[in-house]
Structures are given as C-alpha cells and as structure tokens.
Design a protein that fits this description.
The complex is a heterodimer of chains A (196) and B (99). By secondary structure, chain A is mainly alpha-helical. Helices cover 69% and strands 0% of the residues of chain A. Chain A has 9 helices and no strands. Chain A starts with 8 loop residues before the first helix and ends with a helix. Chain B has 99 residues and is mostly helical. Chain B is built from 4 helices and no strands. The mean pLDDT of chain B is 76. The chains are: A mainly alpha (196), B mainly alpha (99). The interface between A and B is large, with 47 and 40 residues.
C-alpha cells in the first residue's frame, strides 16, 4: 500500500466483513502502532508483546460484528487492547516484591527525593523516572495501577478513562482516590524500610 | 497536596519526558499470520449465527412456557385446592413415627 495515500478505514472494514484476507492484513498493519503502544505501556510480566498484540487483533476480528460505529474504530480497538492487558494483569496473582537493592543508583536517589521531598527540583533523568514509576505502579493491583497510569502518566481525563475502560466516571474517581491512598501507604512503608 | 503527592507528581512529570524510541511497525509476517488466522476461523459468522439462534430459541421457550401455564392454569389451581397442601396427614404422622 503506498504511504502517501490516506488509509481508507471504512472501505477496509467493509472488505474485512466480506472475509477479504488482504484487507484484514492491511487493517492489522494500520492499527499495529496503536495497539503496540498500549501493550508496551501496560505489558504484564512474562507475556511477550507480540503474543498480546495477536490476542488483541483476534478479539477485534471476532467482535467486528458488534462494532456499531458509535465511536471511532481506533478508540474501539484501544478499549479492547486496554481490557485485554488488564485481564492479563489480573491473571497474575503475585506482584514482584519491591526492594531498594533492585533499584539503579539513579532510581534510588529519585525515590529518596520523593520520600523525603528534599529535592525541590524535578528529577531530570527521564528514563530512571519512567522505570521507577513503573516499578512503583507494579506494586499496586491492576485496576489501581491502570487508573493512576492513565491519570498521572498519560494525563487522560476522567471521561477519556471512562471511555477507554468501560468504567463509569464515578467509578473512575473512586478508584483513583483509593489508588492514591494505597500509593500513599506504600510510600510510608518504603520510608520505614529505608530508615530500618 | 501532601509531600508524597507532590513527589509523585514530580516523578510522573519526569517519566512523561521519556520517549519510547522502539519501532512501532508490525514485525515481518505478523499481519499476514494474524489475518490468515482470523479469516480461517470465521468466528464472526459462526458466533453471530449462534447468537441469533440462541436468542430466538430463548424467546420461543419463554413464550411456550407462558402459553402452557396459561392453558393449564385452571387445572393446576383445581389440583392444588383438591390436595389441600403439600403434606397430607399420613405423611406427617409417618415422619413423627420415624423421629
């Protein structure tokens, strides 16, 4: 498919509904960057990203008849991707233990600054901050982790989170409140561990 | 905003500056494999057919149950009044004898 032509999503979907395999391939190629970004941001441990992406696309094809066109197709696929990732996270019973010893030097310094609030300047190592945030979020339950990731890291609005997860807006607010409280408790626990 | 909350906001702000530079294109053969799998399974047709028939079957079963209940209502009511309750006197006496 030539790169300069805009992708005809409606036409492609119509052909996929007629069981056109070439159209299905084009659709997967078109949506892959969107799906893989969602997968990489929420990738459960021990699940290869390609396997998860394949599962999401298979769900998309199997539910295609349910798509009514009320929301843009990429939004609909994003929701399938997010719920599939969250299902995988929920299936993982155990979360990795958080240990100071497992942190890199930069991550440990950053966490120390967060806990003591001594360093007023924002941390400048983006990679270390990214890794640390994910390690901390990894300690929370999947729903708590998802809501904080969407709110604080991806800066989505309550309405956007509601559309993406299928939770109503009140539930999103309640989950965010509870998740922040758990994060607060986790910080207090880490502070105690640091002192001991 | 408490100190932890403040620290968390700073941390997430720093994390947002990180850019994922990994290739986001589908790996070679991925789209072909997924498309072939999806089209060979034919799940859309099979499931929509199943759903359509199962809902119709449920509706029909409910309708038949209602019709049979309405048709036999007078007979059922008559039978219930003739029996005069679930346990008759003999049954109750037998139970007391056993216990």
């Amino acid at each position: 498919m030539p790169d300069d032509e805009p992708f005809d999503l409606a036409g492609c979907l119509a052909r996929v509904r007629e069981r056109d395999q070439a159209a299905a391939r084009d659709l997967v190629e078109h949506l892959y960057p969107l799906v893989i970004r969602i997968v990489r941001a929420r990738l459960p441990r021990r699940v290869p990203e390609e396997d998860l992406a394949q599962e999401i696309f298979m769900k998309m094809f199997s539910r295609l008849e349910q798509y009514q066109g009320n929301v843009p197709f990429p939004h609909w696929v994003s929701r399938i991707a997010v719920t599939t990732c969250i299902d995988h996270l929920r299936a993982q019973q155990r979360r990795p233990e958080f240990r100071w010893a497992d942190l890199s030097e930069n991550e440990a310094t950053m966490l120390d600054a967060v806990l003591t609030n001594e360093n007023e300047a924002a941390p400048d190592d983006a990679l270390a901050a990214h890794e640390l945030v994910h390690k901390l979020l990894g300690q929370l339950k999947p729903d708590d982790r998802l809501v904080l990731q969407l709110l604080d890291l991806e800066q989505k609005t309550i309405a956007e989170i509601s559309a993406l997860t299928g939770w109503n807006q009140s539930l999103v607010k309640v989950r965010a409140f509870r998740a922040r409280r758990k994060l607060q408790k986790m910080f207090e626990e880490l502070r105690r561990k640091e002192r001991s | 905003m408490n100190p932890n909350e403040n620290g968390w906001q700073k941390l997430t702000a720093a994390a947002r500056r990180w850019r994922d530079e990994r290739d986001a294109e589908a790996p070679y053969g991925f789209a072909v494999r997924v498309a072939a799998l999806a089209m060979s399974e034919d799940p859309v047709f099979a499931r929509s057919l199943f759903e359509r028939f199962s809902w119709r079957a449920l509706g029909l079963a409910a309708l038949l149950a209602l019709v049979s209940l309405a048709a036999d209502y007078s007979a059922l009511a008559q039978s219930a009044s003739d029996d005069g309750g679930f346990f008759d006197e003999t049954t109750v006496t037998s139970v007391f004898e056993i216990s």
